[in-house]
Specification:
The protein is α+β, with helices and mostly antiparallel strands. It is built from seven helices and five strands. The protein starts with 7 loop residues before the first helix and ends with a helix. 24% of the residues are buried.
């Protein structure tokens, strides 16, 4: 009989369940912990979370796919988030969105072929008065025009 070593992914999921599984309604908290640890929610984690929290896989998968925040694929080395809330829309985020998708050659919830960049949409970064707002790897930028977007990407590429 051979024993199978747990993967780093399964260990991260087990740790999240152990840390938060006792809380009331722990699913969202567990999903956040898994994504914080791994960068996404791997497909095999859905079964492990469902088993650990005594839920169906459909319940877990439904929550993962309902919320735009959760990723089901490994993100790129850099994550670009564009705010699509009403205030940023009023300040021109639609043209920024078009430009970003063309510049990167991907749509929302996709990663460039080289794995360098993922593009995500968010709904409000709390920067409403200075939109359109963009967050690149957790750093928030205001008044982002297509030209400024290109400059930010170039600066980030030099930092990688």
């Amino acid at each position: 009989m051979t024993s199978v070593e747990p993967t780093a992914e399964s260990q991260a999921v087990a740790a999240a369940i152990a840390r938060h599984g006792h809380e009331p309604g722990p699913l969202i908290v567990v999903l956040h912990a898994v994504q914080d640890a791994l960068g996404y929610i791997p497909e095999q984690a859905v079964r492990q979370i469902a088993d650990g929290l005594n839920l169906s896989r459909a319940e877990v998968f439904g929550v993962v796919t309902f919320y735009h925040y959760f990723r089901t694929h490994k993100p790129g080395a850099r994550t670009v988030q564009i705010c699509r809330a009403e205030a940023c829309q009023a300040r021109g985020c639609q043209s920024l969105e078009r430009h970003a998708r063309e510049k990167l050659g991907i749509d929302y919830h996709e990663t460039t072929a080289d794995g360098s960049t993922s593009l995500e949409m968010v709904f409000c970064m709390g920067n409403c008065a200075t939109g359109p707002a963009v967050r690149i790897d957790g750093r928030l930028y205001s008044h982002v025009t297509p030209e400024r977007f290109d400059a930010l990407l170039a600066h980030q590429e030099n930092a990688l």
